[in-house]
Amino acid sequence: MSTFHFGDSVTQHGDHNIGIVKNQGPVDPKAALRELVTAVGQLREQVPAEDREVLDESLEAIGDGSEASPSVLRRALRNISGVASLVRAGAPVVESVRRILDSFDS
Question: What DSSP string describes 40-81?
Answer without folding.
Answer: HHHHHTTS-HHHHHHHHHHHHHHTTSSSS-HHHHHHHHHHHH
